[in-house]
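Fold this sequence, please.
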Amino acid sequence: MTERSLIPSLSRRDLLTSAAILGAAATLPMPLSSARGQTGYVRYRVDTADAARHVNGYMTAIKTMLALPEDNPHNWYRQAFIHLLDCPHGNWWFLPWHLGYLGNFEIICRKYSGMNDFALPFWDWTLTPEVPKIMTNNDPLNPAKFNGYKATYDQFKGDLQGPINRFWDGLDDNRRQKLEMRGYSSVNDIWDAIEDKAKHGKNPMFFKQSEARKNLEFDDDTKNAVSEDMINEANRPISFTDDYWGVGSIDDLMFGSYIVDYHSYYYNPTFGPLEGFPHNLVHNRVGGFMGDFLSSVDPIFFMHHANIDRLWKIWSKKQVEINRSQYPTTRNFAKWVTEPFLFYYDDAGKLIDGIAARYIDSSAFLYSYGPGYTPPTQFPAAAVAGGETPPAVTAGIGSSALKLGLAAEASAPVPAGPGRPFARITLDLPEGSKDARFRVFINAEGAFQNAGPAHPNFVASLELFGHHAHKGHAGLTPTFLLPLGGFLAKMERANKKVTGPLKVQVVAQPRDGRGVAAQATEGSPELGKLARVVIGVS
């Protein structure tokens, strides 16, 4: 496990450059003119009495924004387009980009809520592992019931096509270039992504009103992803990311997702534990709009991401307490903070020329969080004893094909060294695999392939979120950073302490009956391959 200093390990020139960047960012106009109007905005847990006023203010803002003309960038659907056009996933800009998205959106909501102290509530799914009851009534918080939402795709496109065309025509070259990097060469590419024409409409991003949310209750896979054990393990890493470009270190478990060249990059995503598990599975389980990049049509999106942001804030506080860096400790730090975020709007409806440096903590928006589940900051040094092996071991793959109901397997000894083991699992998947679920077991025996989270050797489920418009790539090779400390502690509590080699077993399952997984049930059994497994300690 590599020692990390509190300050990023940059050259003197890079340190001076980074300091200048952060100093310049601090002197730029705030993202929204009202952002410094007062201090002490508090985001409360959505299903508590403290949040009640803010929930009512949120409903007022939603009604108003739904009624705004579609040419107004504050229109509810225009705000959702920001996420579709620009959101990063599976890379190290996931957390700051979404902080900026929520912060700018929150102050727009404050404008329309009638509350000078409005703050977005958060959905603590660890304490409430289902859609909160307050979000399910026949009011603006539920797009499946409230008649202010657009009921059909024809209505949606008919109302938005002209405004989005005009938005596209008004973009400067810099913003056009950023959308080109994402795969949007023309405004038609945006609509093609929404309609998913390559699949003939089998998996569109827009859902008719009766399907705007699929599920109000969590299944067992999602309950596991938001459990105390998983959230505790997600909070445990002591580094945000590291020096390895696009691949990641094999000797540390990182909190943030991994380094790539630009924030819309998604060819080989690497998911940190917070993004890969509670983030992805909650999106997919709620389903409907939440299952893809128009997810912020559903108001619960912002409650979900507020909790992701809250857990980042908790992790950052822990880092300060243990004298570790809150940020990427790498020569690429300057690149991280200077990445352009160009599609947020201010409270006057103007596009913001912003960079990531504004959004690496909550200071731009002056908010804090009320009580919720808080993971510990101290962890046992080792959950399992290692052998005479290097700190990280590439597992030998016994069977690589990911087939429905059969296990792909990779085996490795437990690495030596202090810390708690984790796995880096890389899959090689065809296009459309976001509709599949890949359950991970360790050292399971017998006929476990149709087993679920109740199986004693179950660890977690791997799922992708969203599909992307990138051209020229038929598939993905995603990597998931999976902490094993919670699983190993569970085994020890059951008097089944793991001391020998780890056999990582990945079983493909259809997630919701759509896409590649559904096709596989009709006679195409292979959903991809288990490409690589690395076992490390951190």
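The longest helix spans residues 300-321. The mean pLDDT is 85.
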